[in-house]
Amino acid sequence: MKTSGLWSRYGANITAYGSTLIFLLPVYVLINLAIRPTDDLTPPVIPSSRPTFENFVTAWTTSPLPGSIITSLIVTSISCLVVLVVGTMASYPLARSTSRLSSGTFYFFMIGLLLPFQLALIPLYIQMRDLGLLGTVWSLVIVYSGVQLPFTVFLITTFLRASVPLDYEEAAQIDGCSPLRAFWHVVIPLLRPALGTCIILNSVGVWNDFFTPLIYLSGSGQVTIPMAIFQFVGQYTTNWPLIFASLLISMVPVLTLYLLFQRYVIQGFAGGLKG
């Protein structure tokens, strides 16, 4: 029995370390390609014999990367804020009400998870054109807010039902809290794991999106990070070291955000599993 348990533990450790190496391999290749000279043609898995950080300087100075980071930060921040506010206010009555109308409304939101965004591409483009929002960040904010809202409503509603008992709000109301104060001072603090998860997942989706800015910002002077990186891709040649260096630069804000909210993300997944 002891030998069997020992081999089982060794097998679990080997599997865990092997999985970690598999997931770290793309990161290693990304860093290796970002710090190698353009004329270095060795395979990606072999370390470069002439590592250089000149690619980062070139990518920063010869492309609209600095301005695109600011644009992406503005679009991502406003979109996530709108989605969190609207999604939280919509999820709370859907989670607490037991009527058929509430259940039907929840499933109506879930249709947004099934239908691809591209189905509404032409009507949305015409609507943004008529509103005079083409070429501005507000067109992206409106589109992203609508696209990310169904997932946010689904996540917060299920978290409220599974991990936030109604007893806390009833106790607060007995102590004299109004429903609005109970929602703000009791429910919102308990929703931090779900809100942190929504911030991370929505931010990554908006930050890395290439198709939507290409459609709605085309012809304007504003670009997002994926559009700025795409400028290193030519018709006949592609400067891969600059692309990978730009990718590493673009990862810094997202990784920083994840490090700030990782505790809430882990709590959110743990709470969902528990529920």
Mean pLDDT: 83
Number of helices: 12
Structure summary, number of beta strands: 0
Q: Helix and strand succession?
A: HHHHHHHHHHHH
The assigned CATH architecture of the largest domain is Orthogonal Bundle
Largest sheet: none
Q: Helices and strands: which structural class?
A: mainly alpha
Break the fold down into its secondary structure elements and pairings:
Blueprint: H1 2-34, H2 54-61, H3 65-96, H4 100-114, H5 121-131, H6 137-163, H7 166-174, H8 179-190, H9 192-208, H10 211-216, H11 225-230, H12 240-274
Condensed summary:
This protein is an all-alpha fold. 77% of the residues lie in helices and 0% in strands.
Structural commentary:
The chain has helices at residues 2-34, 54-61, 65-96, 100-114, 121-131, 137-163, 166-174, 179-190, 192-208, 211-216, 225-230, 240-274. With 275 residues, the chain is mostly helical.
Keywords:
275 residues; mainly alpha; MetI-like fold; 2 domains; 12 helices; 77% helix; globular
